[in-house]
Amino acid sequence: MGQPAKVVGQRNAAVETRIPLTIQPGFHVNSDKPSDEYMIPLTLNWTSLGALVGGQVTFPKPSLEKYDFDDKPLSVFTGSIELTASFKVSAHAPAGPGIATGKLRYQACNNKACYPPKTVEVNVPYQVQ
Amino acid sequence: MSAQPHIGQLAIALGTALGLLCYYFQRRGVPLRRLAALATLALLLFPAGLLLQGLYSNPQTVKATSVKPDKERHAAPDFALKDGDGKTVHLSDYKGKVVLLDFWATWCGPCKFEIPWFIDLERRDKDKGFEVLGVSMDDNGWEDVKPFLADFKVNYRVVIGNDETARIYGGVDALPTTFLIDRDGRIAAIHIGLTSRKEIEDGVEDLLRTAPATPVSAVPGAVPAARVAANQ
Q1: Out of A39, A111, A114, whose CB is closest to B175?
Q2: What 3-state DSSP class applies to B68?
Q3: Does B147 reside within a domain?
Q4: From CA B65, how far away is CA B199, in angstroms rounded?
Q5: Cβ B107–A39 below 8 Å, yes or no?
Q6: CB-closest option in B110, B137, B144 to A113
Q7: Across the interface, which of A70, A74, A113 has its CB nearest the CB of B174?
Q8: If you average pLDDT over residues A97-110, what whole number do you get?
């Protein structure tokens, strides 16, 4: 996972950041809307927003890929993708730096095997002007 | 797939065609001595084709070895895990049987692909001393697993595994990971990731053909030294 871009804004300003993810060649992660109810979706949930509010996450368009283990193509992410998180700077936020923290959960597979779901921490640095 | 059966069929077809050609030319008045080479070739190709086909149509001759030789097998670690009814299942309970031990999870696509094969095998070979035992690695346990088993009409026993179970089996991470265990409780084959149905079936058949080295009745109540009471 790459470092999200720093969010800079004044109080009440709408701001957003991009969170870059790279999936190793030969692997895929399920998209945010997997093809099967049992599959684990890619999720990003904020645990601490600090001076930010909202944090709605927009996922890129998934690709439909065919694998040996399913008759139909699956909705997945492969290669390099970017998630976009949209915030608003709180009306009462004190000026200065801070970090919003979230948890990114993903579950990866290749053409033959799957690996247990993993959760990694996402830190978005921000600066209230 | 082997190419030899196809070569056999080709030789038969070619031999037949040459034979017919000789017959045709002879009927048209061509002297037999001028057709000698063609006729000889036809006579050689036809039986050679039959021979090749006969040799390679026997599955015993093309079958790859799907299980480890006896000497290379090690004892499958024992465990104590709960099934869906809350009963404790030990792997050692299955001694004397051939066991397909499948580490899987509901979220694992390749695992789901294999499960119908295991359902068929359980149905087909249960009476021959074979059982499938599924070890689910789902973090949410029965909450996720029970609806899945109902959806897929799973007809074999499933227990919920844990990190300790994965550890004693060599650190199972990739799913599915399937162990074929012989009647003596030894690991005869390991398949990591999706494998072919034929490979699994051949392995089970091989193991079912072999009688246990130690008759189960000779060791009443015996518990293998390797038994590990895994966390439940």
Answers
A1: A114
A2: coil
A3: yes
A4: 9
A5: yes
A6: B110
A7: A113
A8: 98
Residues B197 and B118 in one domain: yes
Segment holding A77, helix H or strand E: strand A74-77
Predicted TM-score of the model (pTM): 0.77
Q: Would the CB atoms of A69 and B112 count as touching at under 8 Å?
A: yes
Q: Of B137, B189, B180, which Cα lies nearest the Cα of B158?
A: B137
ipTM here: 0.93
- Selected residues 49-108 of chain B with any CB under 8 Å from a CB in chain A: 105-108
* Residue B223 maps to a domain: no
Domain ranges, residue B43: 4-62
* Distance (Å, whole) CA B34 – CA B157: 73
| Within a domain: B232 | no
Task: Please compute the mean of the pLDDT values over residues B119-140 and round it to a whole number.
Answer: 98
Q: Say if residue B128 is in the same domain as residue B14.
A: no
Chain A contact for B226 (CB, 8 A cutoff):
no
Question: Does residue B25 lie in a domain region?
Answer: yes
- Of all residues in chain A, the one with the smallest CA distance to B144 is A38
Count of domains observed in chain B: 2
Q: How far apart are CA B111 and CA B115, in angstroms?
A: 6
Residues B74 and B155 in one domain: yes
| pLDDT, position B212 | 77
Which of residues B62, B78, B94 is at a domain's end? B62
- Which residues in A lie closer than 8 A to residue B107 (C-beta atoms)? 38-40, 107, 114, 117
The residue type at B126: K
CA distance B169 to B114: 20
Q: Which residue segments constitute the domains of chain A, with CATH numbers given?
A: 7-124 (2.60.40.1250)
